[in-house]
Design goal:
alpha+beta; extended; Mao_N_sf; 5-stranded antiparallel β-sheet; Immunoglobulin-like; single chain; Copper amine oxidase-like N-terminal domain-containing protein; 5-stranded mixed β-sheet; Cu_amine_oxidase-like_N; about 15% helix
């Protein structure tokens, strides 16, 4: 009786192990690197083709992803967003650590192939803490527009990289999607 149970267990384990080895050889994980950063669990290679997560690639490329359930279709929109930072009438990109300045963000958006419901601009300090600069519901139905924030007073207390990030929502119920970023360096004198 014990011998029979042991034989059945050995047979089941052999079949299971062989199946797992076949499944592993049929599809292999692929490392995907976008702009120097590796994506988590991004790719599979099977039948001579590479399969990637659309959402992860779109997030890396700072693009909008839209899923149409009825048509079973994924659409990726990559608007061009160029940001300019103005202190009074002067464009800047570097500041002295400890300075408190008043500035505004101008964003030129083109190649926008979808309507959007809202935009948001935030600044992230070197520790990753977010401060909202401005968020606004919009009704944009054209492929290009300009967006300007109100003046913001901000203190660059820590040396390092501060990142201005531009987000969009396709619909009001969507999550914010990052579509552009610009870096300000705060340096000691």
């Amino acid at each position: 009786m014990k011998f029979r149970k042991l034989l059945i267990l050995l047979l089941v384990m052999s079949l299971w192990g062989g199946t797992m080895m076949f499944a592993d050889s049929a599809s292999q994980k692929v490392r995907v690197i976008v702009n120097g950063s590796e994506l988590d669990d991004a790719g599979l290679f099977a039948d001579g083709k590479t399969y990637l997560s659309v959402r992860q690639v779109a997030n890396s490329l700072q693009a909008l992803v839209f899923w149409d359930e009825a048509a079973k279709k994924v659409t990726v929109f990559k608007p061009n967003v160029h940001m300019f930072l103005f202190q009074d009438t002067t464009i800047f990109g570097n500041v002295v650590k400890g300075n408190r300045i008043s500035f505004k963000v101008f964003a030129q958006v083109d190649n926008l192939m979808t309507d959007i419901a809202a935009v948001k601009i935030s600044i992230f300090d070197p520790n990753g803490e977010e401060k909202l600069i401005q968020a606004k519901n919009v009704s944009i139905d054209k492929d290009n527009f300009w967006y300007r924030t109100d003046d913001i007073n901000y203190s660059f207390d820590t040396a390092g990289k501060y990142t201005i990030r531009f987000f969009m929502k396709v619909t009001a119920s969507d999550d914010w999607k990052l579509v552009s970023e610009k870096t300000i360096s705060a340096k000691t004198q």
